[in-house]
Design brief:
The chain has helices at about 15-25, 45-60, 75-85, 100-110, 220-225, 235-250, 255-275, 305-310, 335-355, and strands at about 5, 65-70, 90-95, 115-120, 140-145, 145, 150-155, 165, 185-190, 200-205, 280, 290-295, 315, 325-330. It is α/β, with parallel strands linked by helices and about 350 residues long. Helix 4 (about 100-110) links the parallel strand 3 and strand 4 (about 115-120).
Amino acid sequence: MKIHNFSAGPSILPKEVMQKASLAVKELDDSGLSLIEISHRSKNFVDIMDEACDKALNITKLRGKGYKALFLQGGASQQFLMSAYNLLEKKAGFINSGTWSTKAIKEAQLLGEVIEVASSKDKNFNYIPKTNSIPADLDYLHLTTNNTIFGTQFKEIPETLVPLVADMSSDIFSTNFDYSKFSLFYAGAQKNLGPAGTTLVIVKEDILGKVTRKIPSILDYSIQIKSGSMFNTPPVFSVYTCLLTLRWIEDNGGLDEIGKKNKIKADLIYDEIDKNSKFIGFADKESRSTMNATFNLSEPSLADSFDTLCQNAGISGIKGHRSVGGYRASMYNALSISSVKALVECMQILEQKSK
């Protein structure tokens, strides 16, 4: 039976990426050595890191525009702190659109004044809040572009004169748009990029070196740039698999084609949620995420029946986050349109059987 993997992360990866990564674990490029036993200082791995960083800048169209790409550790959670360490001198602004924004605010508060420029907490984060006024005296404005737990996503990036920082862990490389709007953005790899273990950070160098505090070496972007993401031993398998995924994106038409397929998948699931009497969407329609569709049953008593239908169809990973409940279909880049159709068919069968 084919398994349709809707997991929110770690999540589905392209089959060809998994096949190449597994071969490299046995032997990397006829080197006689496994990927996971080569020196991170060897030419083999330095070339891998350099190509991965270069492709990240190429895909975002930021090459030659003053940006550097890094592959670090600690996930987005470490970036909540690291971004504040490097950028927060007096005051930072945050758009609070969910759990991860809340966590980022908590970390930044350790280092300076933090204000919420906008928040959707009043409705349990089921919408993206509007930013009517952004103070000009902020060191930076931080937002989370996509919210996996609540299934909301920024459709338009706020216009601001202050540096813009983004956690893009769950929708990076999911469509084509202007990445140059951001001075810094980061993404845990385990959604659209690769396995858990590394975090892509892309930073514009001219925003660094402006804080007066001493920054711990491992948290200093400038030091990480100088050391080529290898201030400490990098997670070689995760970085290599990210490189394979970046190659896969380029080989499959780039972000334009990726974005078209992701829209088809999102339209399929949301069309069914809206017309099926047995389901209710969680997120406000104008804020719905392309990556994570959140929904619930209109009749809780149908849960066992729906769960059985999904299990029999090979559908995995659609349980909602424990803080929200219900269901969540995560439709990252590597998920096929046929997998979404399989889920939609289960939803249709449930409605037919329940009439």
